[in-house]
Amino acid sequence: xxxxxxxLKFMRVALEPVGFRLSGTTFHRVNVAQxxxxxxxxxxxxxxxxxxxxxLGIFIPxxxxxxxxxxxxxxxxxxxxxKSVIHIT
Length: 89
Fold this sequence. Notes:
By secondary structure, the chain is of the alpha+beta class. 26% of the residues lie in helices and 27% in strands. The protein is built from 3 helices and 4 strands, in the order αββββαα. Strands 1-2-3-4 form a 4-stranded antiparallel β-sheet. The N and C termini lie far apart (32 Å).
């Protein structure tokens, strides 16, 4: 069984050459459409201890503006490591 640290090392080797930067357990990169692509490694707790989950997401600056989280598109595009999450199901 691999540890979270080992998984992050493997992910880093694969993702950094294609433009992702690591921050904590989350990789980010801005694509040509100015969206931030997000890949996060989440460790399990309690009954899922020892397990890991990979979360994928896209931060869309226009949505941030529509939600009133940024005053302008230019301001929203400065966010390259988003911290907040909007779950859409």
